[in-house]
Model the fold of this input.
Amino acid sequence: MKVDWLIVGAGFTGATLAERIANELDQKVLVVEGRNHIGGNAYDCYDEQGVLIHKYGSHTFHTNSKLVWDYLSRFTQWRPYFHEVRAYVDGIKIPLPFNLNALSALFSPQYAQKLESLLIRQYGYGAKIPILKLRESAHEELGFLAEFIYQKVFHRYTIKQWDLKPEELDPSVSARVPVYVSRDNRFFQDAYQGIPLHGFTAMFHRMLDHSNIKVLLNTDYQEIADEFRYKRMIYTGPIDSFFGYKHGRLPYRSLRFHFETHQKAWYQEVGTVNYPNEYDFTRILEQKHLTGQVVPHTTISFVYPQPYSPGENEPYYPIPRKENSQRYSLYKQEAEQIRDQVLFAGRLADYQYYNMDQAVARALTLFKQIVSE
Ligand code: FAD
Ligand code: UDP
Done:
């Protein structure tokens, strides 16, 4: 078989590039996917009890990019959905990001009011303050609040999730969940938010439904790279594995999901409840909140962070730290030298903590470069 492009990986990055190349350039694409399904980590499916689950952890789509939203909207309608997260702190479920409602839930009305006034005076209503920044506050009471939030919400959760303290990671990691001077309990404030109406996998099927695209599942690209002739490759897997780990391993973090079905309509009040301080798991997910599926029972999943071992579990997260970016840049230099034959993109190949919209934006930008070459 002869194709123009071999694309490794059928996640957001691979599917977007396959779709663009097939539709816009009218070129033939073979997508090779190691798993037995398309969709990458955003894959959803029905479990044995008929509940629509997100196999690799809850995925909530959110973006401020009209370009990305309009692009994906060609392949799906959307179920409007605003994600809410609670964190279990001192026996109380408080909203995350930690906001003014969390203050009211945890402190006496007078003290909550005092802290609220201080936050508004110092940062302004609507401000989002990364916890590591708030910790730098010289103000005595804001310093107390920062330490309280750091200890009760961030410290142990981050150790569970990464086996590192918040300050041992790039500050952008804990800044994903800033302290929010607001009464808005939504986890994201992006302009566009939703869940594909018929699920993520259905959306991926539509993206890849083109006579120029063939998809080969259950196949590592190395098994077939010699059997197929192609002009160029796009690789969306782990970049260190592509180069045979010649500059050493890039660390990734993995997860284990434990699913349980309960014979009741709902298990918890929102889609995600985090447990920063208790248990070995970090959070409990209930995807019915996201999907809007109407069934009398519900499936939840417990998320247990794990070290990543190639071949044994999945590389879910790059670990954003200076020494890892330095090692990644060695691989990036290698990648640049073979750019004519192979292009690298995606959360694993770019070694970047991309959200779904960022993966799509990255793929659309790469496509533009391909066209302009
Ligand atoms: P992936 O989805 O990882 O796809 C890469 C694909 O390549 C995989 O299917 C893999 O099997 C395949 N592959 C790798 N190597 C090979 C090989 N050698 N041969 C063949 N195939 C190979 N983003 C959000 O915006 N909102 C969320 O709520 C959200 N929740 C998340 C929750 C979790 C637990 C995780 C891990 C991520 C979450 N994300 C979320 C991020 C989102 O999953 C990523 O941005 C997105 O999946 C990136 O797409 P990708 O195509 O780059 O990578
Ligand atoms: N975090 C935390 N406690 C929480 C939620 C998040 O310490 O209750 C920190 C933790 O380091 C986590 C990071 O903030 O890895 C980003 O959280 P997010 O919910 O964005 O993680 P993801 O959904 O990507 O796993």
The mean pLDDT is 97. The pocket of flavin-adenine dinucleotide (ligand 1) is lined by residues 8-14, 32-35, 40-42, 56-60, 220-221, 236-237, 255, 316, 346-348, 354-357, 359 (CB under 6 Å). The CA atoms of residues 61 and 273 lie 18 Å apart.
